[in-house]
Amino acid sequence: MAGVYFDMGEKIMHLVLLSGGSGKRLWPLSNDARSKQFLKVLRDEAGSPVSMVQRVWGQLGAAGLADSAVIATGRAQVDMVQSQLGPDVRLIVEPERRDTFPAIALAAGYLHSVAGVARDEVVMVLPVDPYVEDRFFRRAQSLETALRDSGAELALMGVVPSFPSTKYGYIIPEYAERLTQRNDGQNDESSFRGVRAFREKPDTETAQALMDQGALWNCGIFAFRLGFALDRLREMGFSENYQELLEQYGELPKNSFDYEVVEKTEHIVVVDYDGEWKDLGTWNTLTDEMTEPVSGRGILSADSVRTHVLNELDIPVAVLGCQDLIVAAGPDGILVTRRDASPRVKELVGHLNGRPMYEERRWGWYRVLDYTSFADGREVLTKRIAVEAGKNLSYQQHRHRSEVWTVIQGEGEFARDGVMRRVEAGDVLEIPAGMRHGILALTDLEFIEVQSGNPLVEEDIIRLCMSWEEAREMCRG
């Protein structure tokens, strides 16, 4: 694959977006496969629902940065990313979840040994889901200038605090004076300050004192020369080669990049950003940015003030005479919480580790309708599956389960054991264990799938080919 880059004259900057998260802070609509960045509860300029990752991707495109970006994510999120951003988005897939240092280390190995990026070129790392204005990303581009002009090992971006928050970490510059700004309100591109120290999530009094010292919120955006990260890997005894790093991934320290690298680095500079920035990581902060109080099938009484309903179920949710309430309902559960208590939801449900009941995939989505386990060990799982027109399930087979599909909407081309046929609503398709099968949606297609066997796990899939063209060739052969 060719190197991905943002070209600024002779300078080249590469972007790595981190997409992770366990999905518990916005339970029950988020889960391990669909973290907060994928929830479509925001609106774009046309009023259409968008997720945080779609919003950020659009802003990167507007800033001319999307073509230079690669997303580092886990296996469980690959289909979700491709479903929302398209199949051509560049991905670095982590073999397992191990925090931000291993993810960034793997990305560095990819850029070096696969994309052919030189050691002196600059890499910018950022989360995939900040809620910011477009000019935030224009400002972020000045990290490269700050890094090159200062000779620092790391350049960070810090947000000028609007209040003494106890939820964010703080970057403490060497001096308190703010950077000069141009007439358009933007800081001078070449302006930066040295970093003296960091402080994690202080109490309110300490946060106010930090603000008085000119401290900035740490928004998780930083830049470094690629060789800086590669040198750290080599010093720790790890390979710079991407394929070898994949094999060593489980041995990398399960730690954040902040703790493993940033706090051990001496020469760091920071660039100010004075504008809107929010981490929509809890229900109260997320609903503050919703343009409508109801998402999905919901009914609010007129006296239900500062109350939001987010409903992904097919049944209505009604709220009567409640203030400062959030009701979130989805296949994984139902949450009713006061707005000010909503950040504590992870404490309440963090132990819940069941199968996700809803997932988006590259071809559409599925929802679990029912699960039964019998005394003899046999299991039965029922799903509703939707495949978007023109997309297909892979041509595949299962070792441990048989399936029965009942088409309830649309038309498709069904492949079974080398034979293709057209199917439509009302058709019932039987698929014994071991039989090769797949389907292409000619129109938007939905079917009910009943699995029977043991164990019933998503990993019980042998994918023979992904594209429908390949499936047709295999059937002809």
UniProtKB/TrEMBL annotation:
One of its GO terms (biological process) is polysaccharide metabolic process. Residues 16-290 form the Nucleotidyl transferase domain. Residues 315-352 form the MannoseP isomerase/GMP-like beta-helix domain. InterPro entries: Man6P_isomerase-2_C, ManC/GMP-like_b-helix, Mannose-6P_isomerase_type2, NTP_transferase_dom, Nucleotide-diphossugar_trans, RmlC-like_jellyroll, RmlC_Cupin_sf. Its EC number is 2.7.7.13. It comes from the Bacteria. The keyword Kinase does not apply. SUPFAM superfamilies: Nucleotide-diphospho-sugar transferases, RmlC-like cupins. This is Mannose-1-phosphate guanylyltransferase. It comes from Acididesulfobacillus acetoxydans.
